[in-house]
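Tutorial handout. Part one gives the primary structure; part two gives the three-dimensional structure as tokens.
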Amino acid sequence: MKNTIICFSSLLIIMTTGSCANMQRNTASPVKSMAITGKTWKLTEINGQPIALKNPKANPYFMLNTADMRYSGHGGCNGVGGTFEIKPESMRIKFNQGMSTMIACDDLATERAFTQALLAADNYSVNGDTLMLNKARMAPLAKFVAQP
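Part two.
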């Protein structure tokens, strides 16, 4: 009888602990992940400087699609896209080299800086509707604002 009570108590403790661990794991990740996925992020700064576009209607932007783990957007002149990896619990991100169209325009320098910032970023931070892509602990490579 005593062994039965000990076994039952041990089993109950293991089940409760496992249940709590699953609840914590399932509620922590989606909240941080949802902070940047499924939104359109419009570029506002590169390397600490506000962007100055010759064609303000062609503002660079990107979106993250977690269904197929792809990013897509526009660099100001050309469409850009590729795959990405994200670890929302540690706010790590990696954009993999993707594809781009090859059209020349007046804002090509901004587009190059935009795509270089995406590929160099290894982490991110979010403050309200502002996203910052960073490399290590340096100043942000690029700042973006979420679009409605």
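Part three, for discussion. The chain is about 30% helix and 35% strand. The longest strand covers residues 79-87.
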